[in-house]
Here is the input.
Amino acid sequence: METHCQNPPLSLITDLKVRRQRSSRIIPPEKTERRSLFLSNMDQVLNFNVETVHFFPANPDFPPETVVDILEAAFQKILMPYDFLAGRLRFNPQQRRLEIDCNSAGIGFWVASSELSLDEIGDLVYPNPAFRQLIMDKVDNLDADDSPLCVVQVTTFKCGGFALGLCTNHVTFDGISVKLFLENLASLTDNKPLVLTPCNDRQLLAARSPPRVTCSHPELVKLEIPQGNVDEFDQSHTPVFAPAPEDLDFKIFRLTESDIYNLKQKAAKLGVGESRISSSFNVVTAHVWRCKALAAAADITQNDISEKMSTVLYAVDVRSKLTPPLPPSYTGNAVLTAYAMASCHELENAPFSSLVEKVFEGATRMTDEYIRSAIDWGELYQGYPLCDLLISSWWKLGFSEVKYPWGRPKYCCPIIHHKKDVILFFPDIERGQNALNIFVALPHKEMDKFQALFNKFLA
Here is the structure.
């Protein structure tokens, strides 16, 4: 049986030999308005850091020292239109919610160097834990309550290439607004105007007054808020998406464009013919969902498996689904978690097309009223999404398409955190524009079952 699982490269580098040379704090070049930035209920549940690395090959016209100077100047300039990025996250005890104090305290900027070349690092697509050396999440000599919302690390390699490591708190951006931020940053590095002026008005996604929950939201659970010390709530407000240390195996499952086409054909043969229903994302999500749920239920008796339910969540951009639509330049989080639910019996025995349709229906459920209802639900209960599988997709974000004066990135990837209920999709540049890498972390026994099911349902 063909396997789509990639084992770690034989020559996986575990030490990138990185030496951090200096750190600084970048502040806006001019005074900005001191204000408190409202954070929507979509922002509130995403209080954790997102770490990405962008690898660039050497360009003789832009030696590493020049690139560092250009990037440092561009990050300073961009803190004018993105002034909130230089602020600090605060908990407002009166409102009982997080907000950003736009106080121009600045972002972190680190300069580092590696003794290796990009060729010596090898496979950039494989999520090497050593890539964590290319990221910093703090600045020296700052107190914990003065933590920057953004920390940058530029690491130069001996070949002349470099890596741009970004650590940002998720309350600042979603994936789509990060793409615009990078496009604006690239434009500033080329001494050009912004591609699009950011819209920083998070009130556009404020709850209605009074809140009105008009739709069912089975994917959300209420958060029990302590009535005592406010700080106790602040510290306990940990979202379901936050990484947690677990004893897990992890593997990469790779799907070529041909594999994905075959999944679409399976769905079409069984009744789902419309391309918008059997999209690449929908068929892959349905396939992964089925494998994950059945692997977790492998030891359940046949009677119990008929009743055990599984829920998959995945992010849907709601910018164009609202009335009126949000501006394309909206900087905050404008994604909701769509859901699909099925019993393990159905996941095992139902036609593949029915699972694909369930995934498709999750996104079509996102009408203006449903979105407003979900926002209002958050206002009343301050809860969060709950599931046994969350799909986090970096597949089509297009970070590698951003063009800087020295060229486009060779590859962009998130720093991977192992969590058994989160599966990541990210592009596989080695196998074609639409090929896909799937990162899975599971207990050893479940991983073996997942791999067997993954290959079985692709055959």
